């Protein structure tokens, strides 16, 4: 009998993932519960690399929720649904991983594999999660959200502005978490938004925050074509996985 | 013919089968709907499970329809449903059902494009299905739902929401891999899986024991431990893989293949030559490939062909059924794809296209276009693509039409891959501008706004394209539909300034611009623009639509700018104009705007209700029952609800739903009916409507989510489920726009009420964060409503009074003064429901403080009388409970019927004489007669009642017939004898 994927908290995590949160308050609740479970996962417990990401994600999502209550966004329906769709993809990846399914996105599995060790530094771990989530999940979450709202990814729209507002949330919340590593974080956030080629070319600072948006526009155009859509999905998954593995390699530790 | 050489047993699915059977049949209450969505990776056995279940359901008396969706992205709308019907037709032996099925198939064939065509088609299809089912439970089984077209998706949601009035279960299989990324079904399933009537079942691979059992069944005995281990490792429990690997193992080919791909590769290699040709031909076709078609493509003598097919089936590469052949697995196509040279593949497609040209088949045009394109002959694919586009438009499938038009555009620009041939017909001449126009319009209709705008840009670059002004207007229309108001405004202004603008175009642009400005909240500018549009329209004959549109904008603008009388007068004149010279739609539109103006910003509810109902009658006469009548009746229902005539509202909404509306109209009515059910405390009915609304909203329609959440919170409140109410409010608050003051105020009241009642009844702890946030919302609403127009402020103030009073319940036991103020606010608005509720709370607060018990008793009596008159059961019972505690005696009307008052009220209006000669008259005829008795002429009556003079004449002659009189004087005498009510 092999040990279950999530060790002693397996049943709890399976139970949690059976539920599909439908609104932002429920997403925050979900992430909070998940955090409590992840830090109990042996052998790393509190230093579980996924917990590092989950904690960051929880902080960001809580800030988004506050923003929704506080009238921070122009089109809250869009942002609330985007947030739910976005989170759903993280939970999906966890579900696939739980079932040891070959469908687990590669972008995520490189982080999940490290869950039981060897230990990675918290900063690159969190960044690897952010990488998978933004570079892989976000464009698809955007397309699904816009489609269900019968809208479109149009530059300069209210929705686009709200979307960019999230970048500001990252910028606001990250200094609290960075404990003195602002420059590295800044670089990381810029980097994880871009394809790895762009990163090497050093062009990213001006435009890569918009890469997920651009990718969403690209998927949007081929969304009725199952083959092209799948092709795009694989491309994003491969790219994100490449960057994720890099972040979790000894090279990633320079960030800390 | 044998569809399969030998079939493996179904292993490890007994529990799933039983659960699905009860979900789809046994547990479905009569008249209800249910759905099961089966997800799983390919090869996990979804199709097999569908087939087994279909058989089982059929055996217990269900009528099972089975269809599958196609992966050619440019299929035809509603294809799976039509395919299912054709399959049923082929199987049927009873003549009666068969003719019903053919009748339904003809509905599709005879469909013509037109306004509200899509909705009417849904209605006709559901009626047809009703007849086909003939009282049996109906199960619609759909495979490969990941490729479903938009029209079928809408049909499913419509039927599942119960709008088709059909007891139906849906069983559909979805390939899990396809749901990754951004598949449109993802969101639909996320929404649906929350409903009680829907299950999303993830079909997992077999476990180790299941794997062993299946392998043993195929091999004919248990495997050696080592072989069993290897099989388990390689297959991962995927039954398809287990089966194929076990077969190879049995036949001694174990070492050859490690993966499924290799299994197929080895089999393809082993095929005889003719069979090889057959599988290649099928791989190039659109499945299922009919036998006659295959024969023409492969060009073998009949006997050799059959032998070749048999060999391919025996090698487990092909599956055959009555309707045609398909490949056994997607992987077979992948394996084969590497074997053919491009020229060979093109030749196959050419043969398909040639064969299909001379005979009609399913999806005729779409397939022709597909094969000619892949045969490298864009010139011959083009007319087929255009025909397929028109065919899709005929069935209102604009998404598919748009794709066909786009393909046609590409084909028109593509050079032929084969040299011209004198034998072939010359390529058709196609007008590119015409193609662009069609493509743009189809894109606009299916919500591809950005694409529609791109196509317009191309059209603008074409020298043969339409003139500048027409383009500006069209661009503005597309932009407005996309919600991009600022650029839309600019385009309308450009149209107005354009030198080639005709007077008609100018009137159109001005009227639409006025409407746009109104939506942007720029009331003064909207009014000005509307006046200009009306001015321009006077010079253009036949511009009634523009007059109606501009008048509505002007009417609203005046109403917001606090000159309601002027606004109303404009809108009334527009209605007269529409009646005099407009199309039926203009009349309907004018009635709608007038009713909305009255029940909305002007808050003249009674008159608004009368106008809405009168309008509904009128548009039904004009043949616009399905769309406009239901819209007008929705307005009437909501107005009647607010003024407290719930029983009447219930009748109106039932009448409207008999039209089986679809889309947003249906949602609006379901919400209206649910509002009544919540008030009545009919939990089952409310729940059912909320589920139906949620089902419809799974397909889109964000603007109805908030009303749904408010109702959910209201219902939960009466059930004492304050946590559910809190959740609904929280979701609502995170999804509402800050400028939607009324929605925010309503949500805040529900939220505070949930916390206050939780506090009072101790059902859950008060959430201080929630309360803090609700206070902030109240503050924000207060600030914003001060700046809003008077009509918004008017409604918001009512809710703010309720919020303030609920807050006082959280601090202590409620401030009677605040509740008194709230009661007064709602009395002022003539809205008895919240007024009665406020009195209850005021009495409660007084009683707790032991102050003025007599006042409390009076308030309770009043509240009870009001609640009873409404039929508001839960509110009444809460009042009774408090009265019991305070020893206040309430007068009961009738103990037996829980909804006594309203039923009585509508049954007997006023004091009618024992023998009423007027009883035979309709309500409308009585109105006319009353006006006749006043001495008005038909023309004057027409003006008063907003109907044409001619219609009045018809009413008058009916009145004469029924009363058996010949003159107006005699008729008036009878009317006066019975006394005006």
Automatic annotation (TrEMBL), chain A:
It holds the Pfam family DUF5995. It comes from the Bacteria. This is Uncharacterized protein.
From TrEMBL, chain B:
Keywords: ATP-binding, Nucleotide-binding. The lineage of its organism: Bacteria, Bacillati, Actinomycetota, Actinomycetes, Micromonosporales. Residues 914-979 form the HTH luxR-type domain. This is Helix-turn-helix transcriptional regulator. It comes from the Bacteria. InterPro entries: AAA_16, P-loop_NTPase, Sig_transdc_resp-reg_C-effctor, TPR-like_helical_dom_sf, Tscrpt_reg_LuxR_C, WH-like_DNA-bd_sf. It comes from Micromonospora solifontis.
């Amino acid at each position: 009998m092999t040990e279950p994927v999530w060790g002693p908290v397996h049943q709890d995590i399976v139970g949690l993932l059976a539920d599909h949160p439908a609104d932002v308050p429920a997403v925050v609740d979900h992430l909070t519960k998940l955090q409590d479970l992840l830090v109990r996962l042996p052998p790393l417990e509190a230093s579980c690399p996924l917990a590092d990401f989950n904690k960051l994600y929880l902080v960001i999502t809580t800030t988004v929720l506050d923003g929704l209550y506080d009238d921070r966004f122009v089109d809250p329906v869009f942002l609330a649904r985007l947030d739910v769709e976005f989170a759903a993809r993280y939970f999906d990846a966890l579900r696939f991983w739980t079932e040891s399914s070959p469908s687990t996105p590669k972008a995520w599995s490189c982080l999940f594999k490290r869950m039981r060790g060897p230990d990675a530094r918290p900063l690159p771990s969190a960044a690897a999660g952010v990488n998978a989530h933004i570079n892989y999940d976000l464009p698809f979450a955007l397309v699904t959200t816009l489609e269900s709202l019968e809208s479109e990814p149009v530059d300069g729209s209210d929705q686009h502005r709200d979307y960019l507002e999230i970048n500001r949330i990252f910028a606001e919340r990250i200094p609290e978490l960075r404990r003195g590593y602002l420059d590295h974080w800044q670089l990381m956030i810029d980097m994880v938004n871009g394809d790895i080629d762009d990163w090497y070319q050093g062009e990213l600072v001006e435009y890569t925050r918009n890469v997920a948006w651009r990718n969403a526009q690209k998927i949007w155009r081929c969304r009725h074509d199952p083959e092209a859509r799948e092709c795009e999905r694989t491309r994003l998954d491969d790219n994100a996985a490449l960057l994720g593995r890099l972040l979790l390699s000894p090279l990633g530790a320079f960030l800390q | 013919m044998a569809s399969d050489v030998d079939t493996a047993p179904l292993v490890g699915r007994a529990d799933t089968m039983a659960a699905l059977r009860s979900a789809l049949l046994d547990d479905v209450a009569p008249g209800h709907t249910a759905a099961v969505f089966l997800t799983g990776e390919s090869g996990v056995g979804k199709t097999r499970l569908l087939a087994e279940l279909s058989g089982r359901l059929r055996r217990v008396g269900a009528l099972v329809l089975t269809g599958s969706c196609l992966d050619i992205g440019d299929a035809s709308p509603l294809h799976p449903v039509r395919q299912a019907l054709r399959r049923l037709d082929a199987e049927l032996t009873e003549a009666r059902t068969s003719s019903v099925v053919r009748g339904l198939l003809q509905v599709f064939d005879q469909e013509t494009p037109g306004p509200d065509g899509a909705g009417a088609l849904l209605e006709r299809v559901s009626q047809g299905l009703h007849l086909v089912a003939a009282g049996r439970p109906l199960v619609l089984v759909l495979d490969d739902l990941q490729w479903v077209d938009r029209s079928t998706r809408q049909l499913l949601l419509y039927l599942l929401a119960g709008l088709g009035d059909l007891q139906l279960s849906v069983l559909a299989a979805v390939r899990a891999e396809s749901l990754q990324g951004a598949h449109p079904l993802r969101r639909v399933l996320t929404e649906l899986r929350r409903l009680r009537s829907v299950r999303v079942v993830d079909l997992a691979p077999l476990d180790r024991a299941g794997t062993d059992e299946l392998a043993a069944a195929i091999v004919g005995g248990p495997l050696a431990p080592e072989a069993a281990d290897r099989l388990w490792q390689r297959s991962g429990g995927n039954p398809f893989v287990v089966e194929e690997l076990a077969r190879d193992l049995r036949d001694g080919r174990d070492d050859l293949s490690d993966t499924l791909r290799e299994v197929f590769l080895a089999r393809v290699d082993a095929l005889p030559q003719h069979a090889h040709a057959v599988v290649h031909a099928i791989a190039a076709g659109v499945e299922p490939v009919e036998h006659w078609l295959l024969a023409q493509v492969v060009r073998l003598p009949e006997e050799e062909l059959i032998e070749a097919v048999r060999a391919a089936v025996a090698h487990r590469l092909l599956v055959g059924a009555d309707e045609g052949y398909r490949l056994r697995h997607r992987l077979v196509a992948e394996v084969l794809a590497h074997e053919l040279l491009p020229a060979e593949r093109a030749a196959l497609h050419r043969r398909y296209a040639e064969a299909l040209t001379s005979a009609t088949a399913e999806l005729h045009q779409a397939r022709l276009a597909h094969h000619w394109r892949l045969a490298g002959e864009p010139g011959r694919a083009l007319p087929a693509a255009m025909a397929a586009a028109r065919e899709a438009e005929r069935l209102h499938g604009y998404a598919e039409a748009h794709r066909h038009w786009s393909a046609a555009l590409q084909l028109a620009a593509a050079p032929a891959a084969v040299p011209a041939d004198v034998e072939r017909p010359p390529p058709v001449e196609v007008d590119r501008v015409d193609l662009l126009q069609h493509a743009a319009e189809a894109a606009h209709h299916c919500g591809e706004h950005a694409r529609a705008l791109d196509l317009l840009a191309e059209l603008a670059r074409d020298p043969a394209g339409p003139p500048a002004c027409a383009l500006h207007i069209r661009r503005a229309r597309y932009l407005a539909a996309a919600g991009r108001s600022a650029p839309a405004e600019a385009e309308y202004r450009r149209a107005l300034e354009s030198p080639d603008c005709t007077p008609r175009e100018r009137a159109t642009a001005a009227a639409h611009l006025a409407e746009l400005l109104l939506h942007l909240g720029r009331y003064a500018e909207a009014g000005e623009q509307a006046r200009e549009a009306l001015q321009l329209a006077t010079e253009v004959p036949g511009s009634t639509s523009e007059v109606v549109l501009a008048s509505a904008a002007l009417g609203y603008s005046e109403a917001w700018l606090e000159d309601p009388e002027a606004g109303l007068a404009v809108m009334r004149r527009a209605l007269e104009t529409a009646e005099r010279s407009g199309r039926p739609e203009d009349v309907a539109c004018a009635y709608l705007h007038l009713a909305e103006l009255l029940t909305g910003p002007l808050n003249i509810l009674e008159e608004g209700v009368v106008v809405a109902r009168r309008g509904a009658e009128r548009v039904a006469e004009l043949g616009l029952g399905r769309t406009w009548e239901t819209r007008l009746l929705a307005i009437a229902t909501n107005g009647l609800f607010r003024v407290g005539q719930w029983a009447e509202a219930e009748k109106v909404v039932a009448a409207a739903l008999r039209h089986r509306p679809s889309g947003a109209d249906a949602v609006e009515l379901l919400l209206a009916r649910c509002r009544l059910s919540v008030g009545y405390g009919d939990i089952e009915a409310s729940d059912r409507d909320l589920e139906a609304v949620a089902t419809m909203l799974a397909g889109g329609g964000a603007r109805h989510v908030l009303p749904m959440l408010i109702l959910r919170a209201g219902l939960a409140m009466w059930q004492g489920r304050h946590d559910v109410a809190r959740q609904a409010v929280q979701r609502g608050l995170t999804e509402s726009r800050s400028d939607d003051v009324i929605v925010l105020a309503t949500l805040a009241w529900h939220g505070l009420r949930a916390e206050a009642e939780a506090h009072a009844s101790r059902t859950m702890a008060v959430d201080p964060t929630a309360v803090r946030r609700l206070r902030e919302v109240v503050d924000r609403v207060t600030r914003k409503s001060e700046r809003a127009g008077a009509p918004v402020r008017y409604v918001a103030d009512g809710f703010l009074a309720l919020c303030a009073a609920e807050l006082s319940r959280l601090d202590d036991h409620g401030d009677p003064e605040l509740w008194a103020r709230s009661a007064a606010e709602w009395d002022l608005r003539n809205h008895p429901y919240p007024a009665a509720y406020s009195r209850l709370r005021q009495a409660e607060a007084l009683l707790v403080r032991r102050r003025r018990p007599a006042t409390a008793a009076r308030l309770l009596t009043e509240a009870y009388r009001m609640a009873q008159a409404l039929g508001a059961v839960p509110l009444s019972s809460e009042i009774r409970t408090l009265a019991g505690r305070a020893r206040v005696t309430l007068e009961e009307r009738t103990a037996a019927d829980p909804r006594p008052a309203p039923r009585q009220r509508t049954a007997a209006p006023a004091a009618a004489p024992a023998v009423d000669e007027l009883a035979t008259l309709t309500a409308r005829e009585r109105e006319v007669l009353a006006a006749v008795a006043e001495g008005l002429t038909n023309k004057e009556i027409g003006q008063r009642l907003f109907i044409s003079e001619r219609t009045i004449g018809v009413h008058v002659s009916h009145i004469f017939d029924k009363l058996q009189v010949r003159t107006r004087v005699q008729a008036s005498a009878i009317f006066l004898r019975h006394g005006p009510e």
